[in-house]
Specification:
The protein is mostly helical. It has helices at 3-39, 46-49.
């Protein structure tokens, strides 16, 4: 295997690490943040959890 081919494989490991570890972790973290934002209405006082009045 030549020097150029070895250098190409060295960069591929970083992409594989990103796709197999960081990307799924980021997706789960984003889902958890969205779930927290949606369920935060449970702890709000009743008048703040209601939709805004139209007047």
């Amino acid at each position: 295997m030549g020097q150029r081919a070895r250098m190409a494989f060295r960069g591929f490991g970083a992409v594989q690490f990103f796709r197999s570890t960081l990307l799924p972790a980021a997706i789960v973290l984003l889902f958890g943040l969205a779930l927290f934002a949606v369920s935060a209405r449970i702890w709000l006082p009743g008048d703040m959890a209601a939709p805004a009045p139209i007047s």
